[in-house]
Design brief:
Distance between the termini: 8 Å
Number of helices: 10
CATH superfamily of the largest domain: Rhodanese-like domain
Radius of gyration: 18 Å
Strand order of the largest sheet: 1-2-6-5-3-4
Length: about 240
C-alpha cells in the first residue's frame, strides 16, 4: 500500500517533491513560482492571483490585485459539495486557461491546501502555481503591498467535471493505516502542541495511534520558501517514512 499522509503534510509535499530545487530560468519550477516571476507577470490578463491567508492579514496588506479567498472562511469540518465548490471557484474568477497563482503569509499550509483543492477538483495542474515564500518573501524583496481590496473579479467559468479521488484518503483507509504501521506511514502535519495534547479542541488530546509527527512548518526554510525535495526526503527517512 502506498504511503498515506495526513492532509496538511500531503498538501505541503504536493507542491514540492515533484519539482527540482533550483528555479528554472523563467522563475518557475514545477508548481512553484518565485517572487521575481510574479513581479514580471503580475499585470498579465491571463493571471489570477489568490490570497489564501486569513482575512485580517489581507486587510492589513497584500499583493496588489490579489483576490482574498481566506481558506478558513469556506473550509470547515463539513465538506462542501462539488457544486458548491464550483460556484465558489467561479466567484473568485477562476476560468479555464487562467494561470492561477496562490499564496499565503508565507511558511503555512494555507496556499498548499488551496492548491490541493484545485487539484482534487481537476483544475489543470499545469496552470497552478504557489508563490514560493508567500507574502513574506515578496516583502523581503521590497516589492509593493497594499491594503486596498482588489476589484471584484469577473465571474469565472470553470466547471468541475470530475474529482481526483486517488489523491485523498477516507476514514476507513486512515483507520487501516493507523493499525498497520508496517505497511503504512500515518504522517501528522499538525504541530507538537496537537500531537502531545496541549491543544485539544475536540475534548480528546493527543494523536491517532502510530501517528508520525512531521509538522507542516518543518517543510519551510527560515525565509518561508520551501525546503528542497532532497532535504524533505532526508526528513522523511529519519522519521521512518519509506518509499514502499
Amino acid at each position: 500500500m502506498s504511503i498515506r499522509v495526513q492532509w496538511i503534510a500531503l498538501l505541503t509535499v504536493a507542491c514540492v517533491v515533484t519539482a527540482p530545487h533550483a528555479m528554472a530560468a523563467d522563475g518557475t519550477t514545477g508548481n512553484l513560482a518565485s517572487v521575481t516571476w510574479l513581479e514580471k507577470h503580475l499585470d498579465s490578463p491571463d493571471l489570477l492571483l489568490l490570497d489564501a491567508s486569513p482575512g485580517s492579514i489581507y486587510k492589513a496588506k497584500h499583493i496588489p490585485g490579489a483576490i482574498t479567498v481566506d481558506l478558513m472562511s469556506w473550509y470547515g469540518i463539513h465538506e462542501m459539495t462539488a457544486a458548491e465548490m464550483e460556484k465558489l471557484y467561479q466567484s473568485w474568477g477562476v476560468s479555464p486557461g487562467k494561470k492561477v497563482v496562490m499564496y499565503d503569509q508565507g511558511g503555512t499550509f494555507l496556499a498548499t491546501r488551496l492548491f490541493f483543492s484545485f487539484y482534487y477538483h481537476s483544475f489543470p495542474a499545469t496552470d497552478l502555481l504557489v508563490l514560493d515564500g508567500g507574502l513574506a518573501k515578496w516583502q523581503e524583496r521590497g516589492l509593493p503591498v497594499t491594503a486596498e481590496a482588489a476589484a471584484p473579479p469577473t465571474r469565472g467559468s470553470f466547471k468541475i467535471t470530475k474529482v481526483n479521488e486517488d489523491v485523498r484518503v477516507r476514514l476507513p483507509e486512515f483507520l487501516t493505516a493507523s493499525g498497520d504501521a508496517a505497511r503504512n506511514a500515518l504522517v501528522e502535519g499538525l504541530g507538537p502542541e496537537w500531537h502531545f495534547g496541549e491543544v485539544a479542541p475536540f475534548e480528546k488530546g493527543g494523536h491517532p495511534p502510530n501517528g508520525i509527527l512531521m509538522p507542516s512548518a518543518d517543510f519551510f526554510n527560515p525565509d518561508k520558501t520551501f525546503k528542497s525535495p532532497e532535504e524533505i526526503t532526508r526528513m522523511a527517512t529519519y522519521l521512518g517514512v519509506r518509499p514502499d
